[in-house]
């Protein structure tokens, strides 16, 4: 049996799983914080959106590197 292809895509797949776990952790923390103190929602929401953006940016960066390398 012959296997051909690149290992870059396997690496990106692992990075995508890590990104999904990171996004889940960001929103779990946000939901827990708002459930405990609903009045803090205005403070926590921008932080959660910023965390989501950072995690997704790292996933997109990993995708770009998978295609470049």
TrEMBL record:
One Pfam family of this chain: ATP-synt_C
Domain of life: Bacteria
Residue ranges crossing the lipid bilayer per the database entry: 12-35, 47-68
Membrane topology of this protein: Multi-pass membrane protein
PROSITE patterns reported for this sequence: ATPASE_C
Localization of this protein: Cell membrane; Membrane
V-ATPase proteolipid subunit C-like domain: residues covered: 10-69
Main location per the UniProt record: membrane
Keyword terms: ATP synthesis, Cell membrane, CF(0), Hydrogen ion transport, Ion transport, Lipid-binding, Membrane, Transmembrane, Transmembrane helix, Transport
Ion transport keyword on record: yes
Marked site: Reversibly protonated during proton transport: 56
HAMAP family the UniProt entry points to: ATP_synth_c_bact
Function, as annotated: Key component of the F(0) channel; it plays a direct role in translocation across the membrane. A homomeric c-ring of between 10-14 subunits forms the central stalk rotor element with the F(1) delta and epsilon subunits.
Family listed: Belongs to the ATPase C chain family.
Name used for this protein in its record: ATP synthase subunit c
Protein source organism: Nesterenkonia rhizosphaerae
């Amino acid at each position: 049996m012959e296997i051909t292809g690149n290992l870059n895509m396997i690496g990106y797949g692992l990075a995508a799983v890590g990104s999904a776990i990171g996004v889940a952790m960001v929103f779990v923390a946000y939901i827990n914080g708002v459930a405990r103190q609903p009045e803090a929602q205005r403070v926590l929401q921008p932080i959660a959106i910023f965390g989501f953006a950072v995690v997704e940016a790292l996933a997109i960066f990993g995708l770009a590197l998978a295609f470049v390398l």
